[in-house]
Write a structure and sequence with these properties.
about 260 residues; alpha+beta; Beta-lactamase; 2 domains; 5-stranded antiparallel β-sheet
Length: about 260
């Protein structure tokens, strides 16, 4: 499996627990993939002439007939923005999202000058991991805090309610519309818990959001359209089960 090898750990950036890092390496995080621009990696991975190409990375199902979660697929969508805009995804989001929303503590790449503001990633309650970046950074590499992420969440809620700033009303409606038919869902996805919008989960409890996990990271962002309330959760440790936390946040967003 190639994807874990796209993570590159900076062993000199800050102190870390060597035993915790060894566990990650045993899980496949070797950093064996060259640290290249996103465009180069996607070519090497997706093109039949690329050095990481493997037919096993693809399924034989007809388009639209099966569902497979793909971080690399998300990075590919980000690269389409790069092609269209002539900017890197980091530059594009900085110009059109982070700066307009005054998300001053949000950025994509490690910065030694900001080390004191970083929360160390932890493997467990005691052992810390080295800081890292990854080639497909658009699929989850944003470094932020709850204050900045709340600004983004408010913009989403406003957009959902027609007070658009970054997208047209039609684009917001498309982004938050169910993509799968309950009567004939594709193979590989269960709609008993949630449907899918464009990069957003449409939960059956009425909320809209997205969660993400990485080594030393667990996160969750969502809002309740009926109340206009939202919630943000960030943790510097991977949590296999966030159910209790999510249920608590959902409870409060149900209150008007």
């Amino acid at each position: 499996m190639i994807f874990p090898d796209t993570y590159h750990f900076d062993l000199g950036f800050a102190d870390y627990d060597a035993s915790a890092f060894k566990i990650l390496q045993e899980m496949g995080y070797h950093g064996d993939i060259d640290n290249t621009p996103l465009k180069t990696f996607l070519y090497d991975y997706l093109s039949s002439k690329g050095k990481y190409y493997n037919i096993k990375n693809y399924v034989s199902s007809k388009p639209g007939s099966s569902y497979h979660y793909s971080n690399i697929g998300s990075a590919l969508a980000a690269h389409l923005i790069e092609i269209k805009s002539g900017m890197t995804y980091a530059e594009f989001t900085e110009k059109y999202i982070l700066k307009p929303l005054k998300m001053r503590n949000s950025h994509w790449f490690l910065d030694a000058k900001k080390l004191s503001k970083y929360a160390k990633p932890y493997y467990d309650l005691e052992a810390s991991l080295p800081f890292y970046e990854f080639i497909t950074y658009p699929d989850g590499g944003l470094r932020t805090n709850t204050d900045d992420l709340s600004k983004y969440l408010v913009a989403l809620i406003n957009g959902y309610n027609g007070n658009q700033r970054f997208l047209s009303n039609k684009s917001y409606q498309t982004m938050f519309s169910p993509q799968f038919s309950k009567d004939e869902p594709p193979k590989g996805i269960s709609l008993t818990y949630r449907n899918k919008g464009i990069f957003w989960n449409l939960y059956n409890n009425g909320t809209i959001g997205h969660d993400g996990d990485d080594p030393g990271v667990s996160s969750f962002l969502f809002f309740n359209p009926s109340t206009g309330q939202g919630g943000v959760f960030l943790c510097n440790r991977y949590l296999a089960d966030k159910t209790e936390i999510i249920d608590l946040l959902v409870k409060y967003t149900n209150e008007r």
